[in-house]
Hints:
By secondary structure, the protein is mostly beta strands. The protein contains 1 helix and 6 strands. A 6-stranded antiparallel sheet has the order 1-2-6-5-4-3, with no helix packed on it.
Amino acid sequence: MIKKLFSSINDNKLKVIFKxxxxxxxxxxxxxxxxxxxxxxxxxxxxxxxxxxxxxxxxLFDEELLIMGNIKVVKLEDNYE
Length: 81
């Protein structure tokens, strides 16, 4: 049981949660591009591109990012860095 708890606390996997007009990214590295029509985020082994309009960042923590706005496209690309 302790192993399971420790594993969930130290979970460094990328998580992306999309709900109506919001995209929550957990375990990201850094923001590469930030405009009101495009946000590009560097994540472990992926780059996430969010396109739409009136995009904004509503939550910005060390490992969690919440993007809101009229999201039209979310694209994941492999990052071999």
